[in-house]
Structure formats: C-alpha cells, structure tokens
C-alpha cells in the first residue's frame, strides 16, 4: 500500500511540473509594427514549434512541458528573440528588430550540427531563402553557379551538373547531392541528374555547399564536395503557394524560331493541433531543349587542313552515324552519312515532380516523417555519346525519426529507364536499315555498312552509269539512295524499333536498378558537457538490374553492400576563442578494403565576427557499380568492371599482354615477314616484344587536402571570405586495354611463350577493356575571395573570384581524370528587395576564362570552351494584400550562345514572367 501511494504521489508531482500548455501571441516588426507572417516559434532544445499567420498571430500547443521554458522566435531578415514562458496560458507580444547584419547565416553541413557560417571550420556556401526568392535565373538551381567556387555544365534545359574544385564532368560521380538527406543520384547512372528529380522552387528552403573533400563526414560520394538541399517543413511553412512562370527561348537562332517555356508549381501544407502536418507539392516544366548543332569536323585521322564540310571522311561533332568509316583503295577515307542530333534527340523536354510528406510529433522532442518523391522527365545528357534520358522515372521513399539531438533515417531510390537511348548508336542503327545493293535490293543490317561503301567505291571509280567518276558528292548521293529521311513514317519506325532494342543490337538503355540506404547520428554533447561528441553511421545496398544489357545480370544479380561510421569531437579552448574539431570515418565496401578518412580543423575567433580557420581533410571515392560490374561485349572488345568476381573464371587480369606491346609485336612481325623472313622465325625473333600486363583490380580513389581561410564581418556591413586550398590525388580510376591469347602468356622460363606469340600473330585472341587505377599523383590548388557589402536603403552589392590551378607534375596525362575547370571564375550581384512601393530587383553576372575540355564524347581529345559571361536579371513587384509577387526576368539576358562542355548544346537566353501566390495558412 505504501508503494502504491508513493507511485501516485510521484505521478501527481510529475504532472505538476510537466503541464499541457497553450501559448498565444503576436509577432511584429520593430519600428513599423507590421505583422510578420511566417515567423517561426520553436521551443528551445525541442522540436515543438509553430508559425505565425498572415496577421502575425500564433498559437503554440504542447503536452507535458516543464515550466519555465524558453521559446525562440525567428523570421527571415530579423534578429531572433528569446522569450521565457512561465505560465501555461501566457500571451506573448514580440517585436523583432530588423537584422543589423544579414551576413551571419546558420549552416549545418560543415559539422552536421547548427553553427554560425562565420565559424565554420571549412569553406561553405549557402543559398538562403531570401536569395532563392530573389534569384533572377529561371530556376533556383541555375543560380548555384553564382556561389563562390561553383562550376556548372548544362547538357539540357532540364539537366545542369554542378561541381567544385576541378575534375569536372557532365556526369559527376565525385560530387554528392542530398535532398532532405536523401542521396539524389540515380542508381544506374551513379550521379545526380541536376535537379531533374529534386525539389521545386516553391518547396526549397535553402541550399548549402561544401567545396572540396567531405568524405570524413559524408562518405565516399562526397569526394569533390557536397550540395545539400533542404525543403520546407510542413509545420513551419503552412499555407497555399502557387507559381506560374512562362517564358521563351531560342531567340536569334537561324535553325529555330522562339519557343515557349512553361513552369507550373503548387504547394500546400497544413498542421493539425501542432501534432500532425502534411504537405503536397507538384511541379511541371516543359519546353524545347537547347540544340546541339556544332558541326565541326573532329576526325582525328584526317589532317586538320583537310577537315571540313567537304571532307569525304567528315565526322561532325553533333552528327551521329558518320563515325563509321573505311579507307577504300583508290578512293581514300570515307565516312557514312550521319543524322543531325535534332532528328535523333527528343528536344520536347519536360520535368514532372510530385512530392508528399507526413509529419507526426510523437512527443515534444520526437518526430516521425514519411516522404515520397516521384520524378519523371526527359533530359539530354552528354557522356560518351549524347544520351536521351527519355521518360526516365526516379522514385524515393524516406522514413525518418528525429529529435533535437539525433535522427534515424531510411530511404530507397528506384529508377525506371526503358525509353532512354544512345543517339550515336541510334544514328548508326538507322543507317543500317535501308542500304541497297547495286541491284536495288535492301540488304541486311549486318551487311549494310560494307554494301554502302561498295556503292560509294563503284560510283567514285566510274562503274555506275550516269555518275561522274572522281566526284565525292556524286558518289555519296549514289550510296545514299533509299536513305530514310527524318520525319517520314519509315524513319520514325526504324528509330522507335532501335530505341526499344537493348544491348548490342539496339540503341536502347534499360535499367530498373535501385538502392536502399539507412543512416543516423546522435549528438552526445549535452550528456558529456566537457567536449562536443557526435557519432553516426550509414548502410547502403545497391541492387542493380539491367537484364543483361549492361551487366551480366540476366541471371546473376549484381548486389553491392557498403557501410560506414564516423566520430567527431570538438573542444573550445582559450576562453572559447579557439575551437578544435577532429573527426574520423571508416567506410567498407564489400569488394574493397576499408578506408579511413580523418579530418582535423581549427577555428580561432578574434571576436564572433572575425574568424580564422585551417583544416586538413581527406577524401575517397568507391568505384561505382558500373566501374565494378559492367560486363559488356561490344564486338571487337569486351568491357569489364574491375571487381574481382566480375571476371571470375576469365583469367583476364592474370593472363594477358598489354595492347601497346601487341601492337609493337604485330608491326615487327609484319615487317619481318614482308622482308622474306619465314613466319615462325619472325615470331620467335620478336616474341620478347610482348609484355605481360600487370593490371590491378579496381580500388577507391584517394584525396588529401589542406585549407586555410578567414571569414568575418567588418562594421556589420562588409562580409569578407578568403580561402586557399591545396589538394593531392592518387589512384584515379581509368580503363586499360589488354589482349588475351588462349595459351599461357609466359613460358616456364618467364619469357613470352612461343605458343602465345603465335596465337597473337594469328589474331587468335580476345581484347578486353579493364577498369583499374593509376598510381600517378597530381595536385590542384586554388584561392577564392568573396565580398558582400550592405549599402544604404537595403541595397546589397556582392562579388567573388576564384583562381584554380592544376599541376600534372610527372604524371602521365592519360592516367588521370581531366581537370576541366577554368583558371578564373568570377561573379557579381547587385540588388534590393524593396526599392520603393514593393518594387525590387536583382542582377547577377558570371564570367569565366577559356579552357580545354576533355571528355569521352570526343575521345578524350581537347575541345576549346571559350571564355564567356552571363547576365541574369529580374525586377519584381510585391502585392502584400494579395500575397502575390510578380517577377519579370531573364537568364542570359544578352542571349550569348555558349557551350559549357565540348559537344553539349549552346545555351541562349530565357526571358520569362512569373506570378507567385504564397498565402500562409493558420
């Protein structure tokens, strides 16, 4: 009985100290006394919170809160305010002062916990809600190029790739992109397709970027950097928002008239009793894509002086099917007639994004979230060819449990690609469906190319009645008789048949691959108190399925598991002026040895507004599933990924000759036989020219980096951000070709065997392209300076400049990833959100220097990217009573047609008008 009474007493006591509360209040702007809608009210150190309505009013309800407690009131552009709550029915009146400095944002990415951007231990950039709202570019994602040190490559209106600190590509597997903590890469491509499957502008709250290695906290994909996009919380951003944006592009083009571009977005969020909230998002963008129509002759086998539109062997950059070539005796080198990209690519692009989220507050410090994202669209991608990602679908499911000092998250990412295709292959396959012999009969695709060249030869040599001999245009016209013309029913039928034919016999790209991911972290700092301690980990499983079109996975499924964990400790010393942080991460992929990636950093704060930083960082990148398990026979050569079990039983890595030595051996034997030496003697005399290959299985790439910097605010007006970095890289992933005879390559004496040499001479061999690593070491360094100045009456002027340098050193240029980064990149911006009477404007300018682009699209030969500048501008009018903003703007306002990677389309201007209705709902 005594025990029972004691329990009752304790429960009653707990109820007395932890009570249900219902706080009401009003938030206004100090000075003007105008109500602040959308202001956020949070219980300090809890996840409980709410927002104000259009009248600045709020109601905060919560169960079992212990009095007294503190609420934190924040609003964009205003200084936060803390209010102590001592009554369960307290009424709060808060007037927020306009922020005297808007230059000290809160960021999370650098240390995985909230902190001042001024005191970040590494370089970090942020697009704030204000910057996103006032962005003059067509989408917020286009504005990323204006951040310090950012690089961007446009392959399509719906696909822009971003990167930092060099080694840029059109499909960047070295740069991690997260949306609400979810890796936004497609499982089959192993990189993010820009914002094609990301978030709509209406739902984006902020975007943070870490330039450079971030593997110590974020794992293998964050080798070159990290972009984290955060969407709006359904509790904090309630109400209805609708955006209608219409514009036009393709101005000043001889090959196209101006085309319409349309972007519609919808968002609705609502909470019930501050316990349950949901949000719905839908957006749809559609228009006509940029044209890739650079017809420069890039045939490397023809002297530069002989290239051009009249070259019989012309291989135009953006014409496909003309790569098929033959050296005809008495005629010379001739290429087949190809098709222009516009006739192969689907330029009617679109991007559909659907999103829904449910949020439930289990307790004051525990929230459950379920989020579903569906994306479908069409985009052009410049890789080894120009690919049409047509009707590509990406879906994600996210389930998360979070508190104020921890989270546990699980998600899945699934793709469906069955209408995508390779335009270069498509041009070649269409070319093989219509060729006639000299009798007028259509031949089989297997004989089409040889038959076409035979017709060309016969016509050129005067063996065809009515065709003038020695006339290349006439010979081509004869060979092209019966050619399928774009737009005809026969052409479209041949095109569709090849697109939906996967593997070697067609141009289609098929993938139903997916991956599952779980991660979490816990902040022990409040429990330890002596120092800060953060721990976390992740687990991922790839499940690849291409039905044998890319992997040997028709029956042998390709599954890959990898995991990692990290620990980060921090301590403030010398009256909290010096903050030291150390972190270490260990990652293990089932096919490779584990990798440790430490990071050490120090920040010395002379004052809270003047901070010096230094850091040592490491990075690594696991080979992608394609790098590991591609198993594709493309006729003369088989492409093999570098995971050991991918080549099990083939004896490829163990028993092959280098391709270079085979070429030298073949030339020597051929010359000897031509001089009268009997073949067996010629082979025996030259067999030692053959060199056994020594190709290692693939392993992760490695990076080490050092950075120093200063970030501070002078007189609450001028933000200065200066940094220098130096990075060194090893173990770049590359391909190498080897030749395998049926016999052992070495004899008992350790020299090339006579039997194997004979098989090489007889061409009784197989060729393999293997994925491996280069031991060559290279380095890169750069310096960046960013300045932002707050002028009078709300005007803001900012700019930044980045200088990047690459040092090849003693490395072989063929053994490293190409740098693909301009030496100089600069940005400037000028704007004011409210010049007068609700009118505002913003102008951004970007300029970068010329450089040579290397990529597989042009066989890793250089293509010049000229220096260019871009101006984006917008003016807007806010109508507060109607909760509407009208914006008139332009991306690339001077309509300069520029390419950002060799072979990608030329980008012109986009001119648009938008209406955004955003009404808070409470």
TrEMBL record:
Report how it sits in the membrane: Multi-pass membrane protein
TonB-dependent receptor-like beta-barrel domain residues are 372-893
Q: Name one GO cellular component term.
A: cell outer membrane
Q: Where in the cell is the protein located?
A: Cell outer membrane
Source organism's superkingdom?
Bacteria
Main localisation: membrane
An example of a GO molecular function for this protein is: siderophore uptake transmembrane transporter activity
InterPro entries reported for this sequence? Beta-barrel_TonB, Beta-barrel_TonB_sf, CarboxyPept-like_regulatory, Plug_dom, Plug_dom_sf, TonB-dep_rcpt-like
Listed Pfam families: CarbopepD_reg_2, Plug, TonB_dep_Rec_b-barrel
User: What PROSITE patterns does this protein map onto?
Assistant: TONB_DEPENDENT_REC_3 (PS52016)
Q: Where is the TonB-dependent receptor plug domain?
A: 118-225
Q: Where is the signal peptide?
A: 1-18
Going by the UniProt record, its keywords in alphabetical order are: Cell outer membrane, Membrane, Receptor, Signal, TonB box, Transmembrane, Transmembrane beta strand, Transport
BP term (GO), one: siderophore transmembrane transport
Which family is this protein grouped under? Answer: Belongs to the TonB-dependent receptor family.
What's this protein's name? TonB-dependent receptor
Which organism does this record belong to? Mucilaginibacter pedocola
């Amino acid at each position: 009985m005594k025990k029972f009474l004691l329990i009752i007493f304790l429960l009653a006591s707990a109820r007395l100290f932890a009570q249900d509360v219902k706080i009401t209040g009003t938030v206004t702007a100090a000075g003007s006394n105008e109500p602040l809608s959308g202001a956020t009210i949070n219980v300090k150190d809890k996840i409980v919170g709410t927002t104000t309505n259009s009248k600045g009013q709020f109601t905060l309800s919560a169960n079992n809160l212990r009095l007294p407690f503190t609420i934190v009131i924040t609003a964009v552009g205003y200084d936060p305010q803390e209010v102590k709550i001592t009554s369960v029915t307290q009424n709060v009146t808060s007037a927020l002062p306009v922020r005297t400095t808007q230059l000290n944002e809160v960021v999370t990415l650098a240390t995985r916990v909230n902190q001042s951007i001024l005191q970040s231990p590494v370089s970090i950039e942020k697009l704030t809600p204000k910057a996103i709202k006032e962005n003059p570019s067509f989408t917020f994602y286009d504005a990323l190029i204006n951040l310090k040190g950012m690089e961007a490559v446009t392959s399509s209106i719906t696909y822009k790739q971003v990167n930092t600190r060099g080694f840029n590509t059109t499909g960047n597997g070295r740069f991690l992109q997260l949306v609400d903590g979810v890796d936004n890469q497609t499982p089959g491509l192993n990189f993010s397709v820009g914002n094609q499957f990301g978030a709509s502008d209406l739902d984006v709250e902020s975007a943070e970027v870490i330039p450079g290695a971030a593997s110590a906290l974020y794992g293998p994909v964050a080798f070159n950097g990290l972009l984290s996009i955060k969407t709006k919380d359904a509790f904090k951003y309630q109400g209805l928002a609708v955006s209608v944006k219409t514009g036009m592009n393709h101005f000043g083009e001889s090959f196209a008239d101006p085309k319409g571009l349309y972007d519609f977005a919808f968002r609705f969020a609502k909470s019930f009793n501050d316990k349950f909230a949901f949000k719905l998002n839908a957006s749809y963008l559609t228009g006509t894509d940029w044209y890739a129509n650079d017809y420069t002759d890039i045939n490397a086998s023809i002297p530069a002086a002989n290239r051009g539109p009249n070259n019989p062997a012309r291989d135009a950059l953006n014409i496909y099917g003309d790569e098929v070539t033959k050296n005809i005796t008495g005629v010379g080198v001739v290429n087949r007639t190809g098709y222009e990209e516009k006739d192969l690519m689907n330029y009617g692009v679109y991007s559909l994004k659907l999103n829904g989220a449910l949020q439930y507050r289990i307790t004051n410090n525990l929230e459950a979230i379920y989020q579903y994202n569906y994306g479908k669209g069409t985009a052009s991608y410049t890789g080894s060819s120009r690919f049409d990602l047509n009707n590509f679908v990406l879906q994600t499911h996210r389930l998360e449990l979070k508190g104020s000092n921890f989270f546990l998250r699980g998600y899945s990412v699934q793709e469906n690609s069955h209408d995508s295709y390779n335009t270069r292959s498509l041009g070649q396959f269409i070319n093989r469906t219509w060729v006639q012999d000299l009798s007028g009969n259509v031949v089989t695709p297997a004989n089409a190319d040889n038959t076409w060249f035979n017709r060309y030869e016969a016509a050129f040599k005067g063996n065809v009645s009515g065709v003038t001999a020695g006339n290349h245009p006439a010979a081509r016209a004869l060979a092209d008789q019966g050619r399928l013309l774009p737009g005809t029913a026969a052409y479209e039928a041949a095109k569709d048949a090849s697109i939906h034919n996967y593997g070697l016999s067609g141009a289609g790209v098929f993938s139903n691959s997916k991956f599952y991911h779980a991660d979490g972290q816990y902040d022990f700092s409040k429990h330890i108190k002596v120092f800060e301690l953060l721990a976390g980990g992740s687990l991922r499983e790839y499940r690849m399925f291409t039905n044998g079109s890319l992997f040997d996975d028709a029956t042998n499924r390709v599954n890959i598991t990898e995991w990692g964990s990290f620990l980060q400790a921090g301590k403030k010393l010398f009256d909290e002026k010096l903050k030291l942080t150390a972190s270490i991460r260990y990652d293990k992929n089932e096919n490779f040895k584990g990798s440790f990636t430490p990071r050490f950093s120090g920040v010395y704060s002379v004052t809270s507004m003047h901070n010096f930083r230094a850091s040592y960082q490491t990075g690594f990148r696991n080979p992608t599933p394609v790098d590991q398990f591609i198993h594709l026979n493309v006729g003369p050569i088989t492409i093999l990924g570098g995971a050991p079990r991918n080549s099990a039983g083939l004896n490829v890595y163990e028993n092959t000759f280098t391709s270079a030595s085979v070429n030298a051996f073949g030339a020597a034997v051929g010359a000897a036989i031509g001089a009268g030496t009997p073949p067996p003697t010629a082979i025996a005399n030259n067999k030692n020219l053959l060199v056994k290959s020594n190709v290692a299985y693939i392993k992760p790439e490695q990076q080490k980096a050092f950075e120093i910097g200063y970030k501070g605010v002078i007189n609450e007006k001028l933000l200065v951000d200066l940094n220098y970095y130096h990075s060194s890289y090893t173990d770049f992933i590359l391909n190498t070709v080897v030749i395998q005879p049926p016999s052992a390559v070495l004899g008992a004496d350790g020299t090339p065997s006579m039997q194997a040499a004979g098989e090489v001479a007889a061409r009784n061999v197989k060729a393999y392209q293997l994925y491996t690593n280069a031991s060559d070491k290279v380095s890169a360094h750069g310096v960046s300076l960013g300045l932002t100045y707050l002028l009078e009456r709300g005007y803001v002027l900012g700019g930044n400049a980045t200088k990047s340098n690459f040092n090849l050193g003693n490395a072989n240029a063929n053994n490293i990833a190409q740098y693909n980064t301009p030496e100089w990149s600069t940005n400037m911006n000028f704007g004011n959100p409210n010049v007068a009477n609700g009118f505002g404007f913003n102008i951004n300018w970007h300029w970068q220097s010329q450089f040579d682009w290397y990529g597989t699209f042009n066989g890793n030969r250089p293509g010049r990217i000229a220096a260019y500048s871009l101006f984006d501008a917008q003016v807007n009018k806010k109508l507060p009573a109607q909760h509407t903003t009208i914006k008139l703007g332009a991306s690339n306002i001077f309509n300069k047609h520029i390419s950002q990677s060799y072979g990608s389309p030329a980008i012109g201007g986009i001119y648009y008008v938008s209406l955004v209705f955003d009404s808070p709902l409470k």
